[in-house]
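Quick question, first post here. What does this chain look like in 3D?
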Amino acid sequence: MAKNQEKELDINDEYQQRLAKLDNLREAKIDPYPAQSNKTTDVADFLKDFDKLLASQKKIIIGGRITSLRLQGGSCFFHFQDYSGKVQIFFRKDQIGAEDYKIFKENIDTGDFIEVAGTAFETKTKEPTLLATSWQVLSKALLSLPDEYYGLKDPDLRFRKRYLDLLVNPKVKDTFKLRSDVIKLTRQYFDKEGFIEVDTPVLQSVAGGATAEPFITHHNALDIDMYLRVAPELYLKRLIVGGYDQVYEMARCFRNEGIDHQHNPEFTQIEAYWAYKEYSFLMEWMEKYFEFLVKGINNGDTKIKNAKDIIDFKGPYPRLDFKEALDKALKIDLDKTSDKELVDIAKQAKLDVDKTWGRGKLLDELYKKFVRSKLIQPTFIINHPLELSPLSKKMPDRPGYVERFQLVVKTAELCNAFSELNDPLDQEERFAEQKKLHEAGDQEAQGSDAEFVEALKHGMPPTVGLGVGIDRLVMMLGDIENIKEVILFPTMRPKNNENK
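> Answer (accepted):
Ran it through. Tokens below.
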């Protein structure tokens, strides 16, 4: 241990006291960290069956953490919780023995895990209680918990010490129960339709599949730079080439972008690909998915409350053409507006225009400011410009545009999908354009994946693909504004920036 750490511990009286109690337990031949528990039931089952247990006086054993402790002379009450709930325990010296009671009273603190054997007991105030006949320590806590009454309020501390956040802020557990339900129901919907779930590489030699700046790492044995995936798309489409018709992945993705209320560098999305389908079919199918999902987590109702808005996920959803929406908002004809004119419009709108922005980036930023920011109810934005979609299939009757849609809800993109480009020569040309953008300084331009193009040259059937951001979806359904609230361990700057 470093000297400065020793000094810090010397002045931490409570820590020193708990260390002394740990030594006392060991001197009394009590293992403060035993390998097993004799627990027979959990708190929720004890409370559910309380009347029967009170009548039968059957002995049970429960295990959990002490959350509050009221010591008296020859007896004490304390509250005790496990994952399923909280219950009151009553210790009496004459029930558990003078020596065991003394050891408990002198060496056990809030935060400690113990195991208690006993019978159901009802207090004068009719509170269900376990009357202890014996106890055993399961884990001695050396640091105290935050005060239950005052809780843990500071957001930075809550996100850094999520384990404490979960202990003292019960609603946090509800958020992650919602997240779990969203993932379960999503898998259920896709599995029922005949999709199979697969895993594809997180470490990739080319950063492709999405427009985003990647994280770069190095593989020592191969002596090559590699990237954490920004999306699983190019590998999932290889599987369509390989003969699968329906595949999906619940994928952890990484993008080296800014951190704000909507973005975390590490996030989860489901990506899926379906052969022999096209994007208009997929829009209707995704309307049914969102209805199914919202009903599943909302007791059969398609309406949810989000801040001051009531969002209704019952389909069908309006469909706004990208060009028509932007033309109307900016009072222009997009097809007759030059890149320079778009730059001028963006600057007048006080957008922070960078010289590396190509036409696609300009259109995307203008769309976000003037169109997406106004959309509240579920709305499909369809038929995007080619420059925004280097992996999408061109519309046969509309040059310069692709078969793509995004679902926007409460100004946020929840779903992105398109008819997949399966012309390998067209794909090769678009990768070349992305390479030029990257060489010009656009760090978000997609990598050129020659092996993927080679796979396409073996033939890929007409296919639609989609991506749904799980984190943002949970934010929407849970009426949560900060993405850090829906990720158990969000990315944080190291304390005191010691890793810099």
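The CA atoms of residues 53 and 198 lie 47 Å apart.
The two ends are 22 Å apart (CA to CA).
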